[in-house]
Amino acid sequence: MESLSAAHDLERLFDVSLDLLCIAGLDGYFKRVNPAFVRTLGYPAEELLARPFFDFIHPDDVDRSRRAMEALFRGDEVRMFEVRHVCRDGSARWLQWSTHPALDEGLLYAAARDVTERRLLTEAQGALRRVATSVAEGRSSTEVFHVVAEEIERLMGSDSGGLVRYDMDGTASVVASHTRPALEGFPVGMRIPLDAQTLAGTVRRTEEPAWVTDVGSQHPGVERARAMGIRSAVGAPIFVDGRLWGMIAAAWTTSPPALADLAHRIAEFAELVGTAIANAHSRAELTASRARVVATSDETRRRIERDLHDGTQQRLVSLALGLRAAEEKVPPELPELRADLDRLAGGLADAVEELQEISRGIHPAILSRGGLGPALRTLARRAALPVEMDLQVDRKLPERVEVATYYVVSEAIANAAKHARATVLKVHVAADDTVVRLDVHDDGVGGADPARGSGLVGLRDRVEAVGGTMILESGAGRGTSLAAIIPLGGG
Prior knowledge:
By secondary structure, the protein is α+β, with helices and mostly antiparallel strands. It has three domains: 14-114, 2-Layer Sandwich (Beta-Lactamase), CATH 3.30.450.20; 119-287, 2-Layer Sandwich (Beta-Lactamase); 364-491, Histidine kinase-like ATPase, C-terminal domain (Heat Shock Protein 90), CATH 3.30.565.10. The chain contains 14 helices and 16 strands. The strands form three sheets. It has a six-stranded antiparallel beta sheet with strand order 8-7-6-11-10-9, sandwiched between helices. Strands 2-1-5-4-3 form a five-stranded antiparallel beta sheet, with helices on both faces. The chain has a five-stranded mixed beta sheet with strand order 12-13-14-16-15, covered by helices on one side. The radius of gyration is 36 Å and the shape is elongated. It starts with a helix and ends with a strand.
């Protein structure tokens, strides 16, 4: 009686378990499945028992599943094995299996837990992290948009993912698209009409997620989709700073099930994408603002240098020449007057020399006239410590790049001379077709800290304002190294 009661209890547990329970044979067929199995996959128990269990595994996961079966056939237990199963409605669910083989009985005893939501959350977080990383790395909006499109396709398991922006002229334009290799895709810049027959138009009008299951309109964007074999798509609005900015969309060449659920998933991602786009815009605006400030500052420096050189400096030189001429006319019987004029002329010459130094510090004229190479060599000759200069720049570079490079080297030389107690400074500057690479190293005491006002403050802003990056390493007793990469284009 006790054994009958225990068997009855096991039957009840088998039937009421929320986890999927089954008994399978080594012949590849289920022998028994519990109600949770039927509810999760949607197939009647009779069909589950009549077909090989590999029929219910997602095609992309079959090879992994066969390797797991090989381990079971050897008598090994397989635990925490996650695999996708295809439901009756065509959707896929992630199941986490723990299986015990009973080879002497020719059976496999298995329990599975539906971990689909956890997997989807993890995938969404991973997608968002990759988008956020692209923003944090300072990539352009175009590059960020491409990452978003790629992540949409991956996250939704679709044949195509895209990002569409709503324009002021009543249309929309594709700003990013990513498709599976076999598909041609939507070209960036393609215009899409915003009417009731297009997904973009529906999302624009309702400001809600939407989906289409039959692509039948003759509009250009839809004709393109039909040519690609697209049959269904979902889209969700993107809001940036509270304003409807555009939409993200995923499309399939088949008719995937549960489009409403997919629309909900893409809508959640759209909220996160809106934040990423806002951050990318803010970063781009900040970079542009810094570039404008630096450009204005450099132009002001050039103007002051020209005014000093062509105006004040020339006038002082003329006055000095006039004093020398007056000195020559002083009669011999007035030696004191001659001495006073000589002293004044000498002081005026010193003032002109000091003014020239100030003028060079404001904006080096040699940089404008001769380019980066001569300007850096002049810096090295005038330095208060030996400078080993390795220049691999054989052409004129964009002015903003030359100015940024010059001031980085100039500040590094000044710091090494004033603070580092260095005996030598090594400077390496090389330019290729895309960037200038700059490395400066001294053998001084190290410990340079921009926060202490060493003169390095603002250099990083100047470099980043032209789209570059700068790294400073200055360990105590190990000297100071400064490396910068400045792109020749953009910024």
